[in-house]
Amino acid sequence: xxxxxxxxxxxxxxxxxxxxxxxxxxxxxxxxxxxxxxxxxxxxxxxxxxxxxxxxxxxxxxxxxxxxxxxxxxxxxxxxxxxxxxxxxxxxxxxxxxxxxxxxxx
Length: 106
Fold this sequence. Notes:
By secondary structure, the chain is mostly helical. It has helices at 8-17, 25-30, 35-57, 65-88, 97-102.
C-alpha cells in the first residue's frame, strides 16, 4: 500500500484531503507515487467533478432544490465513507466512482 519508507500518518492525511472538495488536487500533485494516496485522490477528483456538475445544474429550473439537496446528501455520505477508509488506512471501493477513478491516468 505504501510506497516504502513513507510516513503512514502523512499518507492517511493526504488520502483524507482527497475527499474535501477542491483539496483533492493537493494529493494529486504532491503524492503521485503513493498508490494508496493516489487511489483516494482519483476518487476524490471524480467526486469533485460530480459535485461541480451538480452545482452548475442547480441553476436550471428542472434541477430543483430537492434534487440538489439529495445530491448533496449523497456526496457527503460518499465522502465520509472515503474519509473513514482513508483514516483506517485501507482503500475505498465506491460504486461507480471507483470505476471512473481507475480510468484516470496521471
